Amino acid sequence: MQTRxxxxxxxxxxxxxxxxxxxxADAKDTEVTGGVPALGMHRDAGGRxxxxxxxxxFIDEVRKVIAQDVVDIMLTAAxxxxxxxxxxxxxxxxxxxxxxxxxxxxxxxxxxxxxYNAAPSQPYRGAHLMxxxxxxxxxxxxxxxxxxxxxxxxxxxxxxxxEARARGTQHFxxxxxxxxxxxxxxADMGAFVNDNIIRLMASLTRAERPAFLKVAYNxxxxxxxxxxxxxxxxxxxxxxxxxxxxxxFELIAQSERHGARLALFGRKINQAECQTTLITxxxxxADRQISALEAVQGYHDDLARAGLSPxxxxxxxxxxxxxxLRFDAAEAGV
Length: 334
What we know:
Blueprint: H1 4-13, E1 23-28, E2 41-43, E3 49-52, H2 55-68, E4 73-76, H3 78-86, E5 96-100, E6 136-142, H4 147-167, E7 170-176, H5 189-202, E8 213-215, H6 220-229, E9 235-238, H7 245-257, E10 262-265, H8 267-270, H9 275-286, H10 292-305, H11 314-317, H12 323-331
């Protein structure tokens, strides 16, 4: 039986994208970002955060999302995916399992007492493809506008592609914005990332190309430019840092409006008061059933009915806080 991912991406590649085909991925690969804080907070029966999650509690949350069977892709660290596969957690669902094959060092932000993210990102690969627990994996790369570092990153990606092709493992490519300030002018960020992606993809044959891209949302113009350049290149947006739920829903609505065909959310889901409830409203926004503002209001109503305390008041949560989202939200009149 085909997963929803397989069905949807086939239609998108065939130029037959339709309402309902926008994909949502739960990026539960947060463990690779470092230690205890990375797994988020365990919540009591009233929805209040009480203590950092243990690994068992974290995996339990992942299994709840899988059982809901609404997201299209579940991405985890390789070790977690092995546990889930051993438990046959995906049997009977339409969810595509995926694991993180590498991590650029810019994601090590949750290591307590460390300052890894103050240095330009470097490639690192912990997972071994010969022991791959799924047929789809994520590879990430970070361009930092430095010839030597960017060449090393590209060479590491080339070596990974050789191994993935030999094993028959499909991958998707995550391209981060530079993790250090001032290496690219803010006004040029979207163009810098887009041009690096297009230059990279030009050298890849069909056998090497990623199934889709995962990029930061650098505004409507940059997203539209990347999606318009090559319709065969399926583009997804990464969720980024946790923020208001309005930001979460706006990112889905805006990216879809400007050509993205999926969103991969990590912290925005993992930090939610009720992850499955949030995902339900994310799906409704992606399917153009409601606006981002209506989704925030509906989510808060559901929390109240369930007796769960929200982390923010409704007045706080309806605010668009990410600067890159504000202009388009204002243009849409919401």
